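Incident log, support desk, overnight shift.

02:14 A customer reports that sequence design results differ from what the structure should imply. Their input is reproduced verbatim below. On-call engineer (initials T.W.) acknowledged and began investigating.
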């Protein structure tokens, strides 16, 4: 029988860690270096290709040099070794270079060794018993819920917030910004609005504006003492990998800022066992695709996040660029406060009305399991589910065409404003829930909308790609934000495996190849973000407490590859596709609940309510309060059987 150690292995199985070869005996280390040189050299010299191969051998022999194979480090390492600059290495240069990296004496060697040390990144782990201190970056709804969840189990939490208050994007944003959804679909599961203390009418309105949402978030922070955990006006500049015994730790490098956001001269740092990035999907920097000639434009050019004062639009002709929710809101605000308002968009998206047919709240069609079932099927489903999706595909197609017709009539969509992408796909890219203000202003000629983009600026306006000129005094870009990972060293960034369509993470939370790091609310987007982020925080709490046992990094990577392939097979291409769940949030929430060992069906044993009644934060409140009681699985199996029988009979008699 063949020796199993010599047989092939599953590429997703983790490779056992080899014994460390590095020791403090310089003679032994030099002998190892000489052996590696002879293995990869051509005669008495080593060229660049040989150096690349030698770097991999060095990382296996000397684990502290593991980052030497990183693309950013290979060239710097060769320059350090190549003392005479002739582009090749001899034995003395190679052995001397290894000696310098292991025990650096020169300034160049110390600098490179420091970078290599920062690149000694542990892969994701399964035991978090060492975690006692946690740093959270960001004091928005994600950071606050994470702080509450982790502090409840005895972890010491510090929140770093660059501004002077909690709230994140709700602290300040564009003119008249507010919730797209009714208040009950945007509330903390463990702190519903009707239990909040002394909220004003602004915070309890059916569709609260931004200041009302901010008031509610501040009330949450005050109720649970979360402000005491916050370091306000403190901007994190760097997250640096450190060694802490057998575990990887993180040093947070930050500076304090005054009310004018001026940084202090001296940077400070503090080391934590675990770091949570909770900076949100819409952080910094703003995305502003400026066209040619912007420097000669005599008017103002703003991003939507700085379009905060109605006075700045007074008496002006405003052009808004973008096709998303913020761009539409900016165009409406400009029409209210300016003299002219024009919206420029490249792609039209399907608007979702607050009430279907002006009668039924939209949540009945989008926040229920029925609405989720009508979407393109998720890959992680049983054979029976897949069979039903395939069998009912014609019905689902007809359903969405009816929905498109309904929305087309309700919003009066025609011409360039009529989207070309099917709505069941577009909701994963656009997803804007609108009132009728934009529609009515178009009818009243208070604003105009054109499909196109700015080709160039003039002194007093813009010229579009079709040579149409629009005179204006202000251009507002409602074009979203870029994602920045500048806090991480480039070596760490490459370990995160950032793709063109975003950052793929296990459960949209944990990177498989970087230990003691999580992202809450930063790499996930649903139609109920506050609930999603709260469930993520509860999931992370159970991971750190040992109640959820993570799979190996290899198996996490396999799951990510499947998720990536599925999303790329049908979702519209965007730079945030990895994060997008939107109306598939039901599937995502179910997965988190299953991981936590709790019921993912939150409507009790009422199958009709389970299928048709919208889900809200209150359905998950017991998970957050710790009062959850799990229903026996066989009970749900019986209910499943009855429900499937009913669906089969409906299908049989209809078709």
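02:41 Re-run completed on a clean worker. Output:
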């Amino acid at each position: 029988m063949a020796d199993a150690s010599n047989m092939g292995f599953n590429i997703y199985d983790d490779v056992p860690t080899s014994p460390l070869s590095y020791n403090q005996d310089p003679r032994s280390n030099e002998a190892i270096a000489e052996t590696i040189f002879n293995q990869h050299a051509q005669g008495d010299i080593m060229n660049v290709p040989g150096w690349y191969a030698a770097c991999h051998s060095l990382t296996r022999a000397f684990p502290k040099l593991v980052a030497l194979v990183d693309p950013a480090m290979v060239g710097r390492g060769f320059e350090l070794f190549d003392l005479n600059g002739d582009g090749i290495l001899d034995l003395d240069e190679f052995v001397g270079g290894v000696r310098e990296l292991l025990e650096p004496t020169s300034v160049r060697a110390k600098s490179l060794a420091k970078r290599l040390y920062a690149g000694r990144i542990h892969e994701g782990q399964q035991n978090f018993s060492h975690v006692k201190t946690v740093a959270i970056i960001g004091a928005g709804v994600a950071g606050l819920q994470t702080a509450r969840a982790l502090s409840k189990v005895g972890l010491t939490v510090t929140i770093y917030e660059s501004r002077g208050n909690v709230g994140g994007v709700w602290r300040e944003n564009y003119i008249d910004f507010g919730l797209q959804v009714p208040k009950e679909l945007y509330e903390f599961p463990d702190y519903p609005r009707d239990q909040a203390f002394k909220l004003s009418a602004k915070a309890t309105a059916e569709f609260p504006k931004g200041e009302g949402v901010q008031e509610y978030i501040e009330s949450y922070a005050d109720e649970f003492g979360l402000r005491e955990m916050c370091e306000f006006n403190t901007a994190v500049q760097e997250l640096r990998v450190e060694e802490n015994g057998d575990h990887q730790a993180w040093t947070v490098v930050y500076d304090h800022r005054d009310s004018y956001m001026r940084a202090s001269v001296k940077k400070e740092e503090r080391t934590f066992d675990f770091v949570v990035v909770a900076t949100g999907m819409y952080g910094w920097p703003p995305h502003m695709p400026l066209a040619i000639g912007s420097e000669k434009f005599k008017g103002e050019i703003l991003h939507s996040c700085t379009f905060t004062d109605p006075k700045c639009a007074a008496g002006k002709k405003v052009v808004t660029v973008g096709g998303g929710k913020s761009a539409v809101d900016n165009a409406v605000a400009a029409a209210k406060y300016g003299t002219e308002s024009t919206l420029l968009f490249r792609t039209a998206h399907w608007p979702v009305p607050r009430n279907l047919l002006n009668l039924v709240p939209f949540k009945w069609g989008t926040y229920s399991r029925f609405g989720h079932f009508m979407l393109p099927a998720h890959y992680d489903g049983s054979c029976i589910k897949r069979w039903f999706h395939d069998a009912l595909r014609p019905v689902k197609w007809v359903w969405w065409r009816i929905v498109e017709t309904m929305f087309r009539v309700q919003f009066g969509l025609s011409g360039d404003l009529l989207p070309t992408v099917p709505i069941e796909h577009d909701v994963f890219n656009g997803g804007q829930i609108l009132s009728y203000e934009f529609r009515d202003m178009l009818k009243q000629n208070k604003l105009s909308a054109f499909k196109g983009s700015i080709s160039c600026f003039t002194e007093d306006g813009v010229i579009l790609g079709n040579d149409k000129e629009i005179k204006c005094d202000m251009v507002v870009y409602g074009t979203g934000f870029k994602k920045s990972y500048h806090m991480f060293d480039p070596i760490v960034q490459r370990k995160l495996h950032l793709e063109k369509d975003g950052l793929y993470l296990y459960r949209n939370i944990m990177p498989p190849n970087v230990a003691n790091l999580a992202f809450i609310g930063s790499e996930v987007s649903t139609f109920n973000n506050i609930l999603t982020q709260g469930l993520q925080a509860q999931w992370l709490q159970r991971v750190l407490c040992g109640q959820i046992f993570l799979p190996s990094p290899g198996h996490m990577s396999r799951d990510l590859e499947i998720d990536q392939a599925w999303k790329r097979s049908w979702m519209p291409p965007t730079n945030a596709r990895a994060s997008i769940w939107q109306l598939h949030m039901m599937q995502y929430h179910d997965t988190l609940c299953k991981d936590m060992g709790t019921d993912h069906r939150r409507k009790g044993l009422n199958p009709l309510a389970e299928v048709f009644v919208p889900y809200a934060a209150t359905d998950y409140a017991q998970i957050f309060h710790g009062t959850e009681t799990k229903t026996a699985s066989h009970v749900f199996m019986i209910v499943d059987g009855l429900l499937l029988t009913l669906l089969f009979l409906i299908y049989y008699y209809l078709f």
